[in-house]
Specification:
Layout lengths: L1 H15 L9 E2 L4 E2 L7 H15 L1 H4 L15 H4 L16 E3 L4 E3 L1 H12 L10 H13 L26 H11 L1 H4 L28 H11 L10 H12 L23
Antiparallel strand pairs: 1-2, 3-4
């Protein structure tokens, strides 16, 4: 019960902080992260660690990440960017029905999916320090948002796809002109700075970004990084098709995911 009590205490502590004035560090239109305004003591330390893991996942959790990726590759500005994989409010939307697994999942299950698919790695234990830190951070940036509130439509990055199919050859030309400077012509990216878009070090075929509609919307709203929203939906569609035409790691659905055993006194 100690782990459950800890999460309940976390929720109460964060609810009490709902009136915290807006800081001036990392910003979206209505949400910020400033380490100077975190709660004191272990709770603040856990929130800060969760932020740092999200931004530098491979560096902070090397044994759990096989791709040269971080959570922030898909959740821009540490999950604070509207239409950039925004995580604000996600804490209050769990438990929820998951269509892929056909069951009700907790937030820890959703984070586990990211490690297994997007990181092409393995899952941290649900009661591990790192998992609790990630949940702590997501709870902190979601403070003040009612439990169960749906994601705002304005934060979603899915766009209606063009009626005509994508042209990956045209996408290759756009990629060479607009994307290769950061992600390199071979799609390998720059380690620790720009994520690889295909190849052994990229996300695997089960990741959300491996879906054409999701990558199209993400590219349309967020890329190129130095000039977002300068591509048309059609151009983003073509680029996404080009990127996803390349090989990437295979998701092993038969891999065993097990919670590390702990003595009863841990709880």
């Amino acid at each position: 019960m100690r782990a459950l009590f800890g999460i309940a205490a976390l929720a109460l502590a964060l609810a009490a902080c709902a009136g915290t004035p807006a800081p001036e560090a990392v910003k979206t239109a209505d949400r910020t992260y400033d380490p100077k305004l975190l709660p004191p003591g272990p709770l603040g330390h856990s929130i800060r660690e969760g932020h740092d893991i999200l931004v530098e996942t491979r560096a902070k959790m090397p044994s759990f990440v096989r791709a040269d990726m971080s959570c922030a590759a898909c959740h821009l500005d540490a999950g604070l960017k509207s239409k950039g994989g925004n995580l604000v409010g996600v804490y209050g939307r769990f438990p929820q029905w998951n269509q892929r697994s056909r069951r009700i999942i907790a937030l820890q299950d959703r984070i586990t999916e990211c490690f297994l698919y997007s990181m092409n790695g393995r899952a941290p234990g649900y009661a591990s320090r790192e998992m609790i830190a990630l949940v702590s951070y997501m709870a902190w940036i979601s403070r003040g948002i009612p439990m169960g509130e749906k994601q705002r439509e304005g934060d979603r990055f899915i766009v209606p796809l063009p009626s005509a199919g994508p042209d990956s050859r045209r996408g290759a030309a756009i990629y060479a002109q607009k994307c290769a400077t950061c992600h390199r012509a071979d799609g390998a990216g720059v380690s620790g700075t720009f994520p690889p878009l295909w190849g052994n070090a990229s996300f695997n075929g089960g990741a959300g970004m491996a879906h054409l509609d999701r990558m199209t919307g993400f590219v349309y709203f967020n890329m190129p990084q130095n000039a977002p929203r300068t591509l048309s939906v059609e151009e983003a569609y073509d680029v996404a098709a080009f990127v996803l035409s390349h090989p990437r790691p295979h998701f092993d659905g038969n891999a065993v995911v097990a919670e590390p055993a702990k003595p009863a006194r841990y709880y």
